[in-house]
Specification:
The chain is mostly helical and about 70 residues long. Helices cover about 95% and strands about 0% of the residues. The protein is built from 1 helix and no strands.
Length: about 70
């Protein structure tokens, strides 16, 4: 009887440990997604600026060639 109780207690401790580990992994994944999203927004903004500069330059060249 004592052995069954000890096994049950060990099982609960192991399950609790696994749940805590799972929660920490989920938190880590969530933090990673947030960081990547922020980096993507920054990259996207920089690319839009670069594309805008290229378009303006192309328009200037096209206007100059028409004259």
């Amino acid at each position: 009887m004592i052995r069954k109780v000890k096994l049950k207690d060990d099982s609960k401790k192991e399950k609790t440990g696994q749940l805590k580990e799972l929660a920490s992994l989920k938190k880590l994944l969530s933090d990673y997604k947030v960081e990547r999203k922020a980096e993507w927004k920054s990259f996207k903004g920089k690319m839009k600026d670069s594309i805008g500069k290229i378009e303006r330059s192309m328009n200037k060249i096209a206007a100059a060639s028409k004259k």
